[in-house]
Fold this protein.
Amino acid sequence: MRPFDYHRGTGIEDATRAAAQGSFIAGGTNLIDLMKLEVMAPERLVDINRIEELRGIEATDGGGLRIGALVSNTDLANDPRVRRHWPVLSRALLSGATQQLRNKATTGGNLLQRTRCLYFYDRAMPCNKRAPGTGCGAMEGVNRILAVLGTSEHCIATHPSDMAVAMMALGAEVEIVRASGATERLPLDDLYLLPGDTPERETVLAPGDLIAAVILPAPVEGRQAYRKVRDRASYAFALVSVAAVVAVEEGRISRADLAFGGLAPKPWRNRDVEAALVGQSPSEALFDRAADILLEDARGHGDNEFKIPLARRVLKAVLADLTTGAAA
Amino acid sequence: MQTSLTINGTARELDLDPRTSLLDALRHHLGLTGTKKGCDHGQCGACTALVNGRRVNACLSLLCMHDGDEVTTIEGLGQPGALSPMQQAFVEKDGFQCGYCTPGQICSATAMLEEIAQGWPSHVTEDLEAQPELTIEEISERMSGNLCRCSAYPNIVDAIRKAAGETA
């Protein structure tokens, strides 16, 4: 590991100032691993674990929740309010990593975790994300776990989070404290950038910008599910995952909030898919049409081509489950 | 970096390079070699220890981030002649072969029983709001962060069920 300067942050202002030339650290489960491999080598680590304002889950005036950036994946998954009203979020969290990791991993850190692309991790390999301009080893290499949507000619990395996929389906917002001190709220979808020509830039955050919280809107009517397909039964990243909140009224779909993991460089939401479902009677033909829209621009790269038919099957299965026997 | 913490009930002061992992601090600087280094990347669970009562991978944490924390290692759970119920159950049920992953398995399993007692759900729990039961499926899912290359899993599961029975 490269040497770094360690700073114990005493408050948000102190931490954002100190992190202008460095990186925040909270749970550290991803960052420390990447630092050991020297894939990441921040000059300074700003430890935010002692900042009280970043802790806790509070009810908002709007009937939602404000989840502090330091809330662990464990505490969020176990929160009685989340289990009852946002079960898709508990399910997504519980499907990720291991209990040891969930105990350390935080809400803010989970959103900002890096891809598990093998070429990003291996410094002997070209990678436009880790070392811009060196090329992409994955494009014609071992890419079973990589993306089929939202990619560019420079990068096909996937965002590995389960939690963020559920938050995307739930319409979560991210509260950011900019290094300047200004506070902003962004839809989660707007936090992430697609790789384009600059795969090294993954979010709209600048150095020193801190995620302070995630805001969940009030719960909505409907059934929720998180379906994750992976290479082993536990402790594996999603090959394809679907987070869904679906409601049926009088035989017609009245809500279909959907987000997808394992398919793209960010948790993926496509409103055209949802628009095609809402107002229609559930049927296999309808679900196929939704999958057609989702996968219209999907492009495989050899190893990962199986994800395209797999995503179709998982989406159809989730929609069938959530609309079958639903109250009229 | 100056770090004060409690390890197995004893207050400790350490001033080490900030790069030092909690795992290396335990093994190399405090002589607590019960906690094992397997992969050193959070994938195998051999380094599992308890921090403020919760199981974590000691390899993926820096010592300097644990100022003020309470750490319990396998040495703190029990000692020869005064084994914890989980340690005793692993001996009685032969929950190991080579033994390298065992301290991590035991720390992890000890925390797991407490998690179930507190009603934490897992990925395989049918009802997120019901009290989970200690089925084989639940144990397997909840212990998936601890690998055993000897594949002593059936006896590990038996040991955990035995310990759960004794502590219930």
About this structure: The interface with chain A takes residues 1, 17-19, 21, 40-42, 45, 48, 54-57, 60-62, 64-65, 67, 108, 111-112, 115, 120-123, 125, 128-129, 140-142, 144-145 of chain B (CB under 8 Å). Chain B has two domains: 2-77, 85-167.
